[in-house]
Amino acid sequence: MEFNSSQAALRIRRVQLLCVESGLDGVLFVPGVDGRFSVCNQAMGYLFAGRSNRDTIDVVKLDDQLENAVVLITPTEVKLHVPDAEMREQLQALLVPHVTSFRILGPTITEAADPDLLEENKLASFVHMLRGCRRLGVPCNLAPPPSPSSASALGHQHAQKGSPASNGAASPQSAAPKLGAEQLLALEQWPLLQAYGLEGVGRSGFFTMNFQVYDVQPYMQLLYGNLDGRSLEVLVSEAVPTLRQHWDEMLQALGGKAAGQRSGLSERQVAEPLSGFFAYGLLRAVNGVEQSVTLPPRVIFGPRSSEDSARSEALPLARCGPRPPNTDSPAAEAPLHMVVEAADPRSPLRVARTYFLARGHVVKDVFADPDEEAEEGYSFDVATAGWRGPSEEVVMMMRTYTALVEAARASMSHFATVEGATALSAKAVALEVLSRSAEQLGVSGVLGAGGGGGSPLASRLRFILIQMDHVNRVTAPAVRGSRQLKILRLSLPDIAVRSSAGSKLLGGLVYGDTFLEIPPSYTSSEGEAAGTGVWSGKAGGSGWRLLVLTEGVPSLEAIPAGGCEEQLAARALRSLSRVVEGGAGAAASLRTAALASQRDFERRAAAAAAESQALAARLRERRLGTPSTAEGAGDVEDLEDNDAEAEEEAVAAAAAAAASAPASLPLEAMGRLLTLGGGDEAVLLTGAPSCPALSGTLYCFSAGLVFVEAVSRALWVLDLRGGVGEGLEAVTMQQLPFQQQPAARRDPRVVAEPAATPVATSRGLGEAVVFRGTTPACGLPPVCHLTSNTHVALPLEAMSPAARRFLIQSVLPAWNQTCREAATAATESRSETHRSPVSYFKDMDAPNPFPAALHRAHTFAIQSSAAGGAVKTWSAIVADDDAVRSAIEGLDAEELRGLMSGLDPSVEALLLQPPLPGAAATAAPGGAVTLVVGLPGADQVSVAAAIASMLEEEVGPPGVALLPPAGERLREEHFEVALERATAMQLSSRRQQQPHLVIATSSYLGLMEQLRMLAAAAVGGAAGRWRLAAVVVCVSDDVSYEEPGRSAIAGGLLAQLLPGFVDCVVVGGSNTAKVSELSESLSHRLPEVPQVRSSRTQLLRARAELLPPRADRATRLSSQRAMSAREAWAPIAAAPSAAAATGGLLGPLCATRVVFEGSLDVALLRDALVPLGIPQDPRKAPRLPLGDKDEDWDRRTPVVAANTDNSSSSLVCVSGCVRLSQGAGVSELQGSRQVALRVKEWPLRGDIPLVMGSLGLPANGKAPGGELLFVGSGPTLESERLRALLERCGTSANSAAASVSAAADVVATAAQLTAAQRAAIRAAHLWDPLPEGYCFNGTQYFDAFGDASLEHPYMARFISEWWSDQRAKEVAREAQRESERGAVRVVRVSSTIRL
C-alpha cells in the first residue's frame, strides 16, 4: 500500500484550490524544529507521506529529513527545500509523474558538508521561495476557533462540494482566518520565521511585517475529514482488517469457551477485545483536538439490548435473560440473543450486529453410547423438555432480524444509488422492505401493521443515518455525495412474545454498517460511445455505486450459550472427539492400503466417475425428450438396465477397499470415518442472504458427513442413508457457475464485475458437492429457519489441495456406494413408509442452485477460507478487488471533475474543434497551426524547420513564426499578430490548399498559458478560424537544469509537459548518457506520448509523431482517458504575471537582446562566458542570495538597479542567430549552464517564409553580425556590461594578438639583417659616444690595443633597438588594418525584460 504520485498530486491540488479561492499567494509549511513541531508536521505527513484519517491529527513523527524540509504551495507550483539528497530523489520520484509544476531546492555538496553553510542555504532557499508573495497561509492552529454555527455550516458545505466556498454560503476566508496581533507574535517565535527578520535576510523587517498571514488549519482539518482515494485505501487495507480481527477475537471470547462455560461470561468479558481496542486507540491525545466518542463498542445480552444507551456490565450471561411473565421471581431465563457494536477509534468505522445464543434446533447425539447414557441417567427428552418455547422465540427473532438486515441493505443501496436520495427517503425504503420481508418470513405480527410513515412500525423503528469525520465527529446529517463515511444503524426495540401468561420482553434487534457511495465510473468506451468531445458521464455514466466497508463482518451468528443447546452441543462434540480419536488408527491403516494400490484405485475411481457422468447425461436426455413409440420406450428401458449394471460394476471397485476395512468404527452411526486427523477446513454455501456461508471443520464418513461450525463449535450431521433429519434427496458433483442477474434486480452493492481470481476465472465458483434436501438448507441450523432454498453446497475451492484430492478420490466414491446400497435396501423393503433413497450424480452442466444476488458473498466466503482461499488484496472487504480499486480511483477521478478540474473551455475548443470540410476550409480564412514549445535553447527552431520541410510538399512552404520577437516576454498579442500575418499571406498568395503555420515559442511559460493565448487568437479571433494540428514540446538536457550543482530543474520545464495536451516530445542534448536519463524521466510523466530525438535525421523520419493524422488525433484527444488527463494536469489557476519573475534562484529571470555588427570570435566569447556561469562548474555553484531586494516585483522597474551584488549575478543561457564572417552562412549559437557555447548551422532555409521573428542580421545580407539573447539575473545583464563583453570578442582582437605573436617570433640574430639594413644602422649611429679607451678616425674604430673595426662597439645594442622599433610599428599597422575590417560594433541593446 504505497503512497503514489497521483494521490500526492491530488492532495497538493486541494491546497492549491484553497489558494485560488482564498486569494492566497501560497500556503507555507514549516515542519520540525523550525516550526516548533506545529501542526505543519501533520500537513506534511498528509501531503507527502500519505497519512490519512486519524493519523493526520496525531503527533506525527516524520522522517528526519522530511522534518528539515520547507514547502510552499502556490496556485500553480510547489516549491520545496530538502537538505538531504536521498530525500530529494524520493520526493522527485513522487512528484514528477503527476504534479503539474514543482521545484526542489537543496544544497551543493560543499554546503551539505558544512553545517553553517547548510543553514545559510536553507534560509536563502526560504527567501527565494517567498519571493513575490504577499498573502500567505500557514497551518499553525493559532487563530481563535470559529463559532459552532459557522463551523457546522462550513463543514456541511465542504462535505457537499469538497470546497469551503462551493455553495457560496460562506466566504473562503472562513476556512483561513487572518491572524491577529497576539497570534502573529506567537508565530514569530518559529525559528525559521525569526531568522527571516535578521539584517540582510529577505525583505526589510520581520516576517509578519512583510506578509499577511492566515491560519489555514481549519481548512486542513476539513481536508483530513474528507475521504479521497488514499484515505479509502488506508481504511480498506488497515482499519477494516484490524476491526475485523478484534471482532473475531470477540467471537472467540464467547465461542472459544468450552460448552458449559459460556453461561458464566459477562458482557464486559465478551466485549473486552472491542472495548480494549477502542480505548487503546484514544490514548494519544492531541493538543487542540477534541475527539468525539460516537457509538462506542458494547455487548448487551437479552432484554437490555432495547436500550441504545445501555453499556456492558459485569453480570454473567445466565442472569441477563428475560424474566418470566407475570412473576416477581428474580430468576431469569437464558438470554436468546446479544447485540454487539464495534468502533474503530482512528476512523469513523462502525458496525452493529445481533447474534443469537441458540440455533433453534436440537438433534440427538448420533455418536452417543446408549449404555453410557443409561448409566449416567441421561435422557434426551428430559434434557430438551421446555425447549420448544425458547426455540420458537429464537427462530422468530432470527427471522425478524433477517428482515431488518434486508431492510438496512436496501436502505443503503437506495441512498447510494438513487439520485436525490435523502435520509428520509432511505428510511421509507427501509420501512417498506422491512414490512415486506417480515411478511415473507412469517413474522409480520411481531412488527406491527404497515410500512408507511404513519404506521406503528414507522414509529417503532429507530433509524440512524449519519456521516462522521476523521475525529469521529458527526459533521452533518448524511448528505449523499459527501466525502465522508456514512453509518446506518437500524434497531427494533422491545421484541416481546405474548402468551396467556402475559408478555415476555426478549430485547431489541440492531444492525448497522459503515458505507460510502462511490461516484460514477467513466470508461473510455463510454466516452467514445458518447461521441467526439462529449463527456458521457455528464449525462448519466454508469451510475453511483455502493461500497459497504463492514459487510465482511458476519451478519448473523448462532452460538449456543446458557441453554440446553449448549449442553447438547458439548455432549455431541465430546462424542465426535471419541470417534475421531478412536478411528484414527483404522483410518490410517486404510489410508496406507489405499496409497499402496493408488494407481489401481485411481483407475477404478475414474471409471466410476465416468460412468456416473454418463448416467447423468442419459438422464438429462430422457428429461429433454421421451420416445413416442413403444419400440423407443423399450430401448429406454434397456438403456436404464444397462446403465444400472454398468454403474454397479463401476462402483464395485471403489467399495472393495471399504469392504475390507476393519469393523472397529461405529458403523451403526455414520459408517466408517474417512477423514484423517482433526478434520478438513471447509465452507458451506447456503441460500440465506443473512447467512450465506458457514465456515468450519468437515469430517467425512462413508455414510455422510459431520460439520463443526467454526465459531459456535456446534455440529451438523448429514446422513446419506436417511436417519438424522431424513431431509436429503440428492448429492450432485457439479460446477457453480455465475448466473446473470436481471438488471432490474441486480444488487447495487456490487460495484464492479468479479475479478479474474482463481475462484472466478471461469466465471464461477468452481467445482462443488451440492446437497439437495427436502427441507430448507437440508436442515442446517440456523440457515434452515431463514430461507426456503433447500440446497447446501460444499465448494472444493475452499478446501486445501490435499483435502480436495482426497474428497474426489476417496470420499465421493464411498458416498456413491452408500447411496446405491440405500437404494437397493429401499427397493427390497418396498415399504410405503420408507422414504426415497438419495440420488448421486456428477453433472458439470447443472445450474447454480443459488440466486445471483448471493454470488458475491459466496465468492468472498471462499476467498476468505484459510485452507484453499485465493489471495485477496483487501481480505476484509466483501467487494471484489477490482471493485475496491475502482472505488479508490473513482473517488479521486470524481473530485477532479469538480472544482479542481483545470479544463479551460477555450483550450478545449482549440483542441477538439474538427477540421472544416475541404471547400469551406479553402474559402474561409485560417488554417492549421502546429505549436512547438520549449525553454530557450531547446532546439525549437530545428523542430520547426523539420516540420516545415514535411509540409512543403502538401501545402507549399509553410509559414514559420518565432515567438516572442525581439526577446520580449511571450504575450497573447504575439500569437494574434502571427496568425494575422499568416492570414494575409494566404490571401495574397491565393493558394488552393489550406495554409499551415508553425509557431515555435521560446519561453519559460507553461504549456497551458501558451495554449490559452493561442486559443484566444485562433478560435473566433480576427485572424480567422485556425485549428491546432499538433503540440510538440522540445526538451533538451542542456537547458533542463537552472542550477546543475543543486539539481534544480529549470523553471517552467515541467509546466510544459502536460499529458493530454502534448502530441510528441522531442528530446535532445549534447550528453548521450544524460539524454537517456532525461528520456526515462519523461516516460514516467508522459507514458503514452511518443518521443523523438532531436537530430535532423530522426526528426525527418518521425512524421507520424510530429504531425499525427487528423482523425487519430481527434479520437485520442476526445477520449475519456485524455479528458481525464487534462482535468488532472491543467493548472487550477492561470499563472500570475509575476510568477515567472520569481523563478531564478539568484534573482528574477530576465532577458536582454543585443544586436551587433562585425565578425564575432566564438572562441573568445566562449571563454568570456565561463566566469558568468556558462557552463557552470557544479563544485563552484554560487551561493544563493539571502536578501530579497526586489520588493517591487509587480512593477516594471529596471532590474539591474535592484541588485548590485555580483555574487548573485549569473547567466542562465545564451542563444542567437549570427553570421560569423563576410558572406558566410547563418549560424545558431547556444550555451547554457550545462554546456559551453557552441555553433550550429541555422536550420531554417531561406525559402521558408518567416512570418514573425526577425533574425537580426545586417541588412545587406552578406556582412557579419547578428543578435544574441542573454538570459540570467543580476547586473550581468546591464547594457554596458554586455556591450563591453561583445566588443572584446570580435575577430579584430584575436587578429591583433596574432600579429603581436608573429612579430615576437622574429629571430633576433645579426645574420638575418641585410647589408643595407646594417649600413643604415651604422650610419645612424656613426658618431654616437664611444666606450672608454676607444677612438674613431672617421672611418674605423680603434680600441686600447690598437685593434680596428668598421662598426661601432655598441652595434649589437643598436641592432636590438632597431628590431624592437620595427616590431612595434608592424603591430600598430596590423591592428589598424584589422580594426578597419573586423571590429564588433554593438548596434542596439534592448531594455532588460522580466521573463
Describe, in short, the structure shown.
This protein has 1395 residues and is α+β, with helices and mostly antiparallel strands. Helices cover 38% and strands 18% of the residues.
How is this structure best described in words?
The strands form nine sheets. A seven-stranded parallel sheet has the order 30-29-26-23-25-24-35, with helices on both faces. Strands 31, 32, 33, 34, 36, 40 and 41 form a seven-stranded antiparallel sheet that branches. The protein has a six-stranded mixed sheet with strand order 4-3-2-1-5-6, with helices on both faces. The protein is 38% helix and 18% strand. The protein has 42 helices and 41 strands. The protein starts with a helix and ends with a strand. α31 (972-989) packs across α32 (1007-1018) and α40 (1291-1304) packs antiparallel against α42.
What are the main properties of this structure?
1395 residues; seven-stranded antiparallel sheet; DNAAF9; PB_DAAF9; alpha+beta; Cilia- and flagella-associated protein 61 N-terminal domain-containing protein; elongated
